[in-house]
Specification:
The chain contains seven helices and eight strands. The protein is an alpha/beta fold. Strands 7-2-1-8 form a four-stranded parallel beta sheet, with no helix packed on it. A two-stranded antiparallel sheet has the order 3-4. The longest helix is centred in the middle third of the chain and has 15 residues.
Length: 197
């Protein structure tokens, strides 16, 4: 089995690794890393690459495990995320196709971040027609292969990604390995061709 982190609208590399892995397992017992893809994603807006971050509450301080991370609703981040996504992708070819599903995912009120990310993961895998069972472990697991680094936003990925048309590429060029949101809004069902390559 191979351990994967639960992330917020994961990037292309994350989903490519997931699709290629036999028996992926999503763990809730890793220590939560701040400024990671567990609570943020990267999209392509009018001013270039933009980061969307979900505000969280670490119930046990810096040693909180993933399953102990609550979502903060002190600010209206859901409205801000949706406004940013709508502004970035409103003119993309497949915005209307995915709009309702993504909006309802963002505005669903989950107490814990892992519940939120799991609901997002399930929807993203439907778009990719991935049919393998999703297994979530909330206990420590020994002797496993780990892909937990896929959740680290500071690691540079040295991989060639097939280019696709992006809404603002004439302004800022092409950005690779953004959130799956960027790919599905621009390529729709063809997204599978970029993930399953």
């Amino acid at each position: 089995m191979t351990l994967f982190p639960l992330v917020y609208f994961g990037n292309i590399h994350y989903f490519r690794e997931l699709i290629r892995t036999e028996n992926p397992v999503f763990t809730l017992t890793e220590t939560f890393l701040k400024q990671s893809f567990r609570s943020r994603c990267e999209i392509y807006g009018a001013n270039g690459k933009q980061i969307l971050s979900v505000p969280v509450i670490k119930t046990k301080g810096s040693k909180s495990l993933v399953n102990e991370i609550a979502i903060s609703y002190d600010e209206d981040w859901q409205k801000n995320h949706w406004k940013t996504i709508s502004s970035a992708y409103g003119k993309s070819p497949f915005f209307e196709h995915y709009e309702d599903a993504i909006k309802s995912l963002i505005f669903a009120k989950h107490e814990y971040l892992h519940e939120f990310n799991l609901s997002i993961l399930k929807e993203c895998l439907k778009w990719l027609e991935y049919e393998q069972e999703i297994v979530v472990f909330d206990q420590k697991i020994d002797k496993q292969v780990s892909k937990l680094q896929l959740g680290d936003a500071k690691i540079d990925i040295d991989e060639d990604f097939k280019k696709y048309h992006q809404v603002f590429e004439e302004k800022h060029g092409n950005f690779s390995n953004l959130s799956l949101l960027d790919l599905v809004f621009n390529e729709g069902r063809n997204s599978q061709l970029f993930i399953y390559q």
